[in-house]
Amino acid sequence: MIGRARALARLHARIRACRKCVVAGYLDRARPIVAGSIRDRIAIVGQAPGSVELAVGQPFSGRSGVELRRWLAEAGLDEAHLPYRTAITKCFPGKSTTGGGDRRPSPEEIALCAPWLEAELALLRPDVVLLLGGLAITRFWGKIALDEAVGTSRSVGGVTYIALPHPSGASRWLNDPAHRLLLKRALAKVRIAARRLDNAASAPTIRSRS
Questions:
Q1: How far is it, in rounded angstroms, from Cα 25 to Cα 18?
Q2: Cα gap 116→119, rounded to integer Å
Q3: pLDDT-based confidence at 204, cuts 50/70/90?
């Protein structure tokens, strides 16, 4: 465990030093953001950090983070046991020029950042991965409508992937009552998965409230 923890710390240092998208001309500046411990058995994969995350230096620090923590609490995970937090791309992509919210990272940016995410998951070896939003879901499941994915799970290579919407305040997807029901179904799956991890662990690394 100590060796893997050191390896993860080195990987985080390399990620934070990455400037590939600046060199390629996609970003004016880079501040890659990632957080978590080698002991985390659950990993969260989002789209990209936002402006608040850029300022604070921690994933899910803004309004989306408040909402995410509310969801996790509903699923039984408390503030003291936040999962590993990463994203498809690690830098704030800037604001969208065509509407509200942040710019969606381009396929080229996603491709440049992909090796980092692959290295994180290979080293962390999580039992459960929470996919937040269409970009993360597409990365692991291929193209699928959000209302077909949210509330479902898939097991691949012993890892359980659970699809959730993105908790961004700019999203209107959850305005639909039917979509809110899908979210509740997804959070129920998270609760079951967290309980299963705690029951199987000799020294629990996450806690799910009953």
A1: 14
A2: 5
A3: low
pLDDT of residue 34: 93
Q: What is the pLDDT of residue 64?
A: 86
> What span, in angstroms and rounded, lies between the C-alpha atoms of 94 and 101?
9
Enumerate the H helices of the chain as residue ranges: 2-16, 20-23, 51-56, 63-74, 107-124, 134-141, 146-149, 177-200
- Please answer whether residues 53 and 43 qualify as being in contact, where contact means their C-beta atoms are separated by less than 8 angstroms: no
112-155 pLDDT, tens per residue? 999 999 999 999 999 999 999 999 999 999 999 999 999 999 99
CB of 139 within 8 A of CB of 88?
yes
Cα 77 to chain centroid, rounded: 15
Is this structure's pTM higher than 0.85? yes
User: Between the CA atoms of 105, 35, 184 and 104, what dihedral angle is there, to the nearest 10 degrees?
Assistant: -10
d(CA 162, CA 136): 11
Domains of the chain: 2-200 (3.40.470.10)
Tell me what pLDDT residue 168 has.
Answer: 79
The residue behind tokens 């509407």 is 99
Query: Rounded to whole angstroms, how far apart are CA atoms 174 and 204?
Result: 33
Beta strand 128-132 with 42-46 is parallel
